[in-house]
TrEMBL record:
Gene Ontology molecular functions: ATP binding
Presence of the UniProt keyword Membrane in the record: yes
Keyword list, A-Z: Amino-acid transport, ATP-binding, Cell membrane, Membrane, Nucleotide-binding, Transport
Chief location bin: membrane
InterPro entries assigned to the protein according to its UniProt record, in alphabetical order: AAA+_ATPase, ABC_ATPase_HisP-typ, ABC_transporter-like_ATP-bd, ABC_transporter-like_CS, MetN_ABC_transporter-like, P-loop_NTPase
Protein name, UniProt field: Amino acid ABC transporter ATP-binding protein
């Protein structure tokens, strides 16, 4: 089976500083891959390179078997097949919730306004925010804004959903409502690559967990093994630190 996403030997440097040092990973259709690791390990940079928001220095990114990192590739066309949600909500404050969700389908994908509106309202119902369709983002809590951002990413019907630490900017009591949406998407078969610090969630929802350290995938495999019985000493130290901090049980 051809993976929806395949990354081969991905290298990214910021000036003289190496950030990704030859990353290999694959995300099969209807699977969830969780990226874990310390801050600065390269998780967010990897997601940005996959979405072609960053130029890569070496390696390849394949989407459904097509090398979208090839200099001759149509970057915009590849990006239209992916949805990405960042740590910050990045909603347009001068637009209503509905306008935020319909913008990309209308402007980027050329979807008719009525169709985009219908799809957006369906997604807002799905994330429990239909009543806020005409509200502006400043009327919403952080958790609600992040749920709108997820709806916005889904509005383009992405082949691959990228989630970059989407709960890290939220108060603890709001984390659950956002993760519940991701859990539902995973159960529905969405193909997801996500960076997360929520180890319990990764253990329950992910099909594969990849531990990044120093810009490399040091260890990957089923959550029960990587999080419960890791092979590498560096992975064990990382998880031990989380247990001591009360973030992994």
């Amino acid at each position: 089976m051809t993976a929806v996403l395949e990354v081969r030997g991905l290298v990214k440097n910021y000036g003289a500083t190496p950030v990704l040092r030859g990353v290999d990973l694959a995300v099969e259709e209807h699977r969830v891959v969780a990226l874990i690791g310390s801050s600065g390990s390269g998780k967010s940079t990897l997601l940005r390179c996959v979405d072609l928001l960053e130029e890569i220095d070496d390696g390849q990114v394949f989407l459904d078997g097509v090398d979208v990192s090839d200099p001759r590739a149509d970057v915009a066309a590849a990006q239209r097949r992916m949805g990405i949600v960042f740590q910050a909500f990045n909603l347009f404050p001068h637009m209503t919730v509905l306008q935020n969700v319909t913008l990309a389908p209308r402007v980027v994908h050329g979807v008719a306004a009525a169709e985009a509106d219908e799809r957006a309202r369906e997604l807002l119902r799905r994330v429990g925010l239909e009543a806020f369709a005409e509200a502006h983002p400043d009327r919403l809590s952080g958790g609600q804004q992040q749920r709108v951002a997820i709806a916005r990413a889904l509005a383009v019907r992405p082949r691959l959903l990228l989630l970059d630490e989407i709960t890290s900017a939220l108060d603890p009591e709001l984390v659950g409502e956002v993760l519940a949406i991701v859990r539902e998407l995973a159960a529905g078969g969405m193909t997801i690559l996500m960076a997360t610090h929520e180890m319990g969630f990764a253990k329950q929802v992910a099909d594969t967990v990849c531990f990044l350290d120093g810009g490399r995938v040091l260890e990957s495999g089923p959550p029960a093994r990587v999080l419960g019985d890791p092979v590498h000493e560096r992975t064990r130290r990382f998880l031990t630190h989380l247990v001591e901090a009360g973030r992994l049980t």
